[in-house]
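TASK: fixed-backbone design
INPUT:
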């Protein structure tokens, strides 16, 4: 495989393409840019099929550790909560969505407890049950 341009990494699900931290997608070998549409979606040819992906999602998966590092505060430590492998919770009670590379804004329930809605951990339902942030922190750091 040809060398990648500096700052680019191969996209795991589309190995003939690469992306950088600025979410610029190129074709490996030619270095030609792949232009996203108005919704920031690129079309990539993979095994004779065309797949469509958001450039922000590709960047989040390719640079997961680096993007988490950019939002980490001094003294903050991140761990993966049980039953939610696509999320990280910090000792400062912040919840990070790995696939979207964003910090989730917690809502407050009627008892005044902050929480977030995460996908059903069983994967059987298309629901997003409310989970208290403190319970995620307690499970991750116990």
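OUTPUT:
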């Amino acid at each position: 495989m040809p060398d990648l341009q500096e700052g680019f990494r191969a996209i795991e699900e589309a190995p003939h393409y690469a992306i950088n931290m600025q979410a610029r997608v190129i074709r490996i070998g030619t270095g030609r840019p792949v232009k996203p549409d108005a919704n920031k979606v690129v079309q990539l040819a993979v095994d004779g099929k065309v797949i469509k992906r958001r450039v922000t999602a590709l960047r989040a998966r390719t640079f997961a550790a680096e993007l988490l590092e950019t939002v980490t505060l001094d003294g903050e430590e991140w761990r993966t909560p049980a039953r939610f492998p696509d999320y990280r919770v910090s000792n400062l009670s912040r919840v990070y969505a790995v696939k979207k590379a964003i910090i989730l804004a917690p809502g407050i329930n009627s008892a005044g407890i902050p929480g977030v809605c995460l996908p059903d951990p069983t994967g059987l339902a298309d629901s997003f049950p409310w989970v208290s942030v403190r319970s995620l922190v307690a499970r991750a750091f116990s």
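COMMENT: DSSP finds three helices and 13 strands in the chain.
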